[in-house]
Structure to design on (213 residues):
């Protein structure tokens, strides 16, 4: 079974861990405070989960999820994540991360910055435009009328295919935005951000997004 290495055990990371466990994945999860601080979460997740350092989670991962503040991406274990699919959940919150001129000017995207920090990894956007609590509450079986859709973006077809499959397992349809350079369409303050939408509605919201909201 696939091992999901989750780097960042906050709201999104812990919810993705719950979805992964529910679908039979093994989970190795890390945070910035040390594995011992994750004892309660791992106990809840059960025997298919364990806590580790970020380096250990990256090394153990078949697929990784990076869900850390944007300001921390340069500290990610790039060597251990080389060659692996990495799901990027990042959003740019200048109030938290400080201003990043290239993002303020619309010259790059958060996922492109993650790709720069992890040059040998296969990056795909995932789970950045849904409230964390809804990751485990809004999923429905494939074929459900008006099923909620989530977007992904990526330059690597294998990474995008994994997100599409994982979204479906979690209970969501997928809309592919395109390359990482277009992932701004689903970032903070755009029409597709943290609203419930089916695939048709999400596609429409992506189309009307402005590069600088």
């Amino acid at each position: 079974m696939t091992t999901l290495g989750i780097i960042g055990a906050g709201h999104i990371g812990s919810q993705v861990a719950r979805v992964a466990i529910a679908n039979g994945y093994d989970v190795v999860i890390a945070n910035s405070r040390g594995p011992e601080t994750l004892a309660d979460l791992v106990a809840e997740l059960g025997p298919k989960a364990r806590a580790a350092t970020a380096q250990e989670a990256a090394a153990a991962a078949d697929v990784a999820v990076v869900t850390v503040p944007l300001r921390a991406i340069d500290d990610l274990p790039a060597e251990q994540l080389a060659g692996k699919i990495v799901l990027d959940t990042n959003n740019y919150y200048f109030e938290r991360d400080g201003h990043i001129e290239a993002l303020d000017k619309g010259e790059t995207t958060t996922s492109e910055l993650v790709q720069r920090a992890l040059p040998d990894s296969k990056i795909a956007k995932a789970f950045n435009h849904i409230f964390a609590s809804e990751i485990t509450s809004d999923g429905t079986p494939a074929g459900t009328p008006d099923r909620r859709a989530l977007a992904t973006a990526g330059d690597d077809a294998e990474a995008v295919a994994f997100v599409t499959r994982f979204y479906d397992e979690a209970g969501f349809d997928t809309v592919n935005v395109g390359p990482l350079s277009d992932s701004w369409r689903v970032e903070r303050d755009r029409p597709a951000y943290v609203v419930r939408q089916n695939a048709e509605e999400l596609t429409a919201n992506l189309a009307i997004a402005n590069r600088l909201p």
